[in-house]
Amino acid sequence: MQAKGIQAYRASRRGSNSYTLGQRGWLLGNIARTTEVAKELDRNWRGMGNEAVENARHDTHRKLSSYLGYHIIVSPIGPYNTRLRRVIRKALSGQAIKIGILGGSVSVGHSVDNPGDKWQAIYAQWWRDTFFQDEYLHAHSAEDEQEGLADEVVEWVQLVDGSMADTQSDYLQSCYLEHIDEDVDLVLVELGINDIRRAELTTAFEYLLRSLLVLPKNPAIINLQAMSLHPSEMAPGGDPELATAMYYDVPSVNIRNVLLPHLLQHPELESELTRHWFSHTDEKGRVDLKHLNAQGHRSMAEMLISMSQRILCDELKKTNAGLQEEWKSSDKNIPGNEVLEYLPRLRMSQPYDNHSHVEPTKPVCMSVTSKNHPLVPATMKGWEKWKATQSAIYYRSTEPGSTISFQIKVGPLGRARVTYWRSMSALGSVWCWVEVEGTEDSYHVFGKRLDGYWDHKDLHAGTYMTDSVAENIPPGSHNLTCRVLGRDEGSSPEKGAEFRIIAVDSA
Asked: What Gene3D superfamilies does the record tag this protein with (predicted)?
């Protein structure tokens, strides 16, 4: 029946306003999609043999219904979702779309065995099934297969998955194009867990949004937030980023708002429920409370689908009612639709004035993991390209005095940064500097010490960190060099000397 509504939309765009009875019935009588999240709860919780579980299940259904009916669509995310509506209209008209993913280890699929069970795979398949089912079936017909044309099928929904474990907004604000394509129609950002509560990460998240919004196709963005029961706190850096997303009319979907109240109200079921949403890590039954398992991924995907379905139905209703003409205000003091996709001229954290305008940045990023602009040293001594046990790749040195240099191109911001690995293990420190011709002491004027070790017990396992090496660098081509400091010069109590670099960027 859903396909009939889409066929009706496409017919109306060709100038025909006629609908079959079945199509009209779908438009008017089947607007709200029943989410699979409730069904998932039914399938997995029914039969646990615990009356409290059954009561909790019904309670969660009620909260879920409220969340899907209000919290996703109305208040916390802004009332417009204009860009997402435009992308849905594009798919309705039969044009192919490209979806980009920027996320951390949850999106990578830690704790999910089958790639098809990841949230982004499920969500992309919904787009295929909803908008392009007829095209897909036609392209894969028996006749095409016999004629050898099946391999020439248009990829109607292309998924570009740029997720990378331990990634934060400060890295992606400059290096996002090393992970997704420039011509994306829709970008889903999942960084709420990896971005710890630091003001600079909230600022970096805003710069990332601003950069994504001005890509060539002016893509829609969805801010997706997973749930982590990290021992430090339940409110990660994603919470202040919700306000930033709202400022830019970026819809946010947060699964924690559904699941966490239920966990808090039923402590007697904590063991059963955490094992339902999170993954077992070993034979002793311990649970990884940071990474949602396949059931958690499906729930996130179904929440995304529910939000997208409601917008789709709204667009179809407008078509059915003949409301395709945009509303225009008769009062010049009331903004109309022309402001719905604009990029605010001021950042959210700036003071208001009548003249300032934040210019978009065009950073240059080189990353070890990038195919577009791989990080290649100009010179190195005592360093090696090294692959860690969890498939992470770095430039790594363990010897004091070792040096590595990269050629960089500095733009109007005059900034150069290094992304490196930090943890509580025995890591060392480096001194990095930008060599500027004509500056007598570039080593100190445009240099900074970077410490691999940090005393951050909440992130004992470690994370990537992006730090500025220097500011106010003259624009142009320069060399950025890092030298491993002596064991007594670093911050590690274990006097370590190991240091790992993953990326260099400049702007």
From this structure: SGNH hydrolase
Lowest mean pLDDT among 13-27, 123-137, 463-477: 13-27
Cβ atoms of 199 and 234 within 8 Å: the answer is: no
> CA angle 345-351-353, nearest 5°?
60
Q: Which helix (H) or strand (E) holds 52?
A: helix 51-66
62 within 8 A of 149, measured Cβ to Cβ: no
Nearest to 165 by CA among 15, 291, 351, 295: 291
Question: What pLDDT was estimated at residue 319?
Answer: 74
CA distance 43 to 244: 37
Q: What is the pLDDT of residues 218-239, one digit of tens each?
A: 999 999 999 888 766 677 778 8
Tokens of 359: 């210019």
Residues 6+ apart with CB under 8 A from 281: 287, 288
| Greater pLDDT, 504 or 362 | 504
Cα separation values, 49 from 13, 40, 53, 180, Å: 53, 17, 8, 46
d(C-alpha 448, C-alpha 466), whole Å: 13
Q: Residues, the chain, total?
A: 507
Cβ-contact 244, 206 below 8 angstroms: yes
Q: What is the mean pLDDT of residues 13-33?
A: 38
Q: Which domains does the chain have, with CATH numbers?
A: 79-143+153-299 (3.40.50.1110), 364-506 (2.60.120.260)
What is the band of 70 on the pLDDT scale with cuts at 50, 70, 90? very low
Closest Cα partner for 404 from 386, 387, 382, 425?
382
**How many beta carbons lie within 10 A of that of residue 293, not counting itself?**
20
Contact 507, 434 (CB under 8 A): no
> Which DSSP symbol is given to 499?
E
Instruction: Give dist(CA 504, CA 364) in Å, integer.
Output: 8
Q: Kindly give the interhelix angle for 294-320 and 21-29, rounded to the nearest 10 degrees.
A: 120
User: Between β-strands 252-254 and 220-225, what pairing exists: parallel, antiparallel or unpaired?
Assistant: parallel
416: tokens are 């150069």
SS3 of residue 271 by DSSP: helix
Which ranges in 132-232 belong to alpha helices (H)? 133-139, 142-147, 169-175, 199-213
Among the listed residues 492, 503, 497, 487, the one whose alpha carbon sits nearest the alpha carbon of residue 423: 492
Cα–Cα dist 499/496, whole Å:
9
What residues have CB less than 8 Å from 316, skipping those under 6 apart? 5, 6, 8, 9, 27, 92
Per-residue CA distances from 343 to 311, 357, 403 (Å): 22, 10, 42
110: tokens are: 């830690």
CA separation for the pair 108, 112 (Å, rounded): 9
103 forms beta bridges with 190
